[in-house]
């Protein structure tokens, strides 16, 4: 009996030792195939890691700076300094929806100035104001900021919206543009 147990234990050790020493990798999770799109002529594609604020994930995908004016369907609008346009994808990661406010987002310049979204530019370019961001919902849009002439954008301060653990969402998350 003792000899049988010893042989079984030895067999188990030999079999587990013969796996080639390579750790087993979990199969890759399936992903959606989203078609690639051309970057707009005045824009630079950004390849930054996603950032999270509360229950919202932020992916910055495009940046255009030095825009002297904007043209909408019914108006042309001159910048006081120069417009900066950020292409942003937000995704709801929480268990319930949040009211997402595009106008709360801020741009921080190299000098430390904090610039709010330009409401008139957002309206002229027909970008969203507030919307319900549900679980797993992904929304892509532009943010417009009017910076002083010599100012350079450094960081997007992103606010995802109120959550069960942070009802006021006062902090935000800083996302470097480089």
Structure, explained:
The protein is mainly beta and 178 residues long. It has a domain of 111 residues: Immunoglobulin-like (Sandwich), CATH 2.60.40.1240. 12% of the residues lie in helices and 41% in strands. It is built from 2 helices and 11 strands, in the order αβββββββαββββ. Strands 1, 2, 3, 4 and 9 form a 5-stranded antiparallel β-sheet that branches. A 4-stranded antiparallel β-sheet has the order 7-6-10-11, with no helix packed on it. It is globular, with a radius of gyration of 25 Å. Keywords: Signal.
Features:
178 residues, signal, DUF4352 domain-containing protein, 11 strands, Immunoglobulin-like, 5-stranded antiparallel β-sheet, 4-stranded antiparallel β-sheet
Can I get a quick summary?
The protein is mainly beta and 178 residues long.
Mean pLDDT comes to 87
Q: Output the number of helix runs.
A: 2
Main sheet record: 5 strands, antiparallel
Spans of 5+ residues with little confidence (pLDDT < 50)?
A: none
